[in-house]
Amino acid sequence: MLNRSLSLALMAVLLGTGAIAQSFMDRAAAAADGSVNTGSTFRDETINEVVTPYETSRPPEAGMRHTTFEDRILETRDADKTQGRVLRATEDSALIRPDIDIDGQGELFDDANWAHENAEDIAGRYFSSETGSCTTPEVPVSDVRDEFCESLPAREEKTCRLIRKIWVDRTDTYRCDRRASNFVQVCEKTNEYECKVNSNRAACIRRKVRITGGDVTWSGKTATISFPAASPTSNDGSSHLKKHRFSIEVSDRFAPDEVIMEHVEARGALQVLAGNTVVGTFSRTRTGHFLNGRGNACPANDTDGLLVPMVKLGPPSFNQNQRYRCFWGPPFGGGRVQPLAAIIKKPLAGGDALQPPASGPGVFSSGWDMPEGPTSWRAKVYRLVEHGNDKILQWFTCERLEHEFCHQMQVLTPSETVSKDVLRFINLNTYPRSRPDQGQRFRKTDFTARVVFAGGTSNGGRAKITIKFDGACCDSFRNVGEEVCE
Prior knowledge:
Layout: E1 3-6, H1 8-15, H2 24-33, H3 47-50, H4 69-78, H5 82-96, H6 110-117, H7 119-124, E2 147-148, E3 161-162, E4 187-189, E5 193-196, H8 201-208, E6 209-212, E7 215-219, E8 222-227, E9 239-251, E10 254-266, E11 269-274, E12 277-282, E13 306-312, E14 338-344, H9 363-366, E15 373-374, E16 381-386, E17 394-399, E18 408-411, E19 418-425, E20 442-454, E21 463-473, E22 476-479, E23 483-485
Parallel strand pairs: 1-3
Antiparallel strand pairs: 1-2, 4-23, 5-22, 6-9, 7-8, 8-21, 9-15, 9-20, 10-19, 10-21, 11-12, 11-20, 13-14, 14-18, 16-17
Helix pairs in contact: 4-5
């Protein structure tokens, strides 16, 4: 077996030996004479003294447990010593240095690849096995070379090994930039919000609408507000007023498209107001005289005035202040008075007669109203008639006014009830836009439900209103805008 260890440099020298006259042996001798004499340093007897033995039965790390390896590495890395700095620099260099792709077919390996592809021709020029012995031509001295030859009785095998040695020099240069502890960073963010609904729109609306002042129940997007009855009253032909005040607050995260009053119920006649605006006035049956009259004091419709209680009273008996009926027919004809529900457009002036003025401010602009409870206002007036200058004879007569009947909306009985499906749109106070980056706000609208009922009515003054809400609603907002910093 013939083994050859050749370098690229040796190949280059071998290819050019034909032009050198000095023999190989002469050049080898000259090279040997010029080598450094190591004396007795590297000998078998002294090798263990010169070189520290690698093999040992008790290295310094033998006492460490495998569970403490990571801790020791962390201690070494964090220590402000040479070993720690070397470890940190080595790890940082491995993490951040770029990869180098060495192309085996690139220009760097052109000569080596050529020598590999033509190894047989190159080696055959210098080694021969025809006589069973190794012969070497005159080869100039260049690098150290080992040759091994082996002769077999019947045949001889020669193998030449070509070893390619590649050196790559790389220099990494690092610079440490230290940033000041306080610095200015400029960022620009585009705010863009996305509406989030937790479950469904109906549930969102219920959470964004607050109703106070009554007993509230919800069904989907519809709220029913119930109000209790007034205190019991006597069945004496009197007429009473009960006011139920409530409010609706709307969040700025709910934008109502429609708010509709869909159904009303009451024991008596009912009027609903939003602030000073009448949403509607409702009764079981209206009198034929309602809205039919002359003069500016007559209301134009059921929203043109306040719903108030009235009674049909007659003049007192001769020389007495007691008031009696004006004989207005059943069910209170004979010895009783008649309760009424009326709409008053102008404030009632002085006394207790139904005599609203034809001019002047209306009930809403003036702030006029009746107190709760039984009324003392009467629907007809009486006039004292005296005889001659001596005024010995006096009597009273019931006289009608021009606009007397146009106010009278509903004749009341102790069993009077209203229950109707209605369609009245309600305007609520709302915010024009929401503030997604801040807390939600609620805006309130005040309402009044006025019920006029006859004395002795069971549960008189009780009322129920159904309102449906619809529109866009958001439980919360999510900022999906992007932030760019320099």
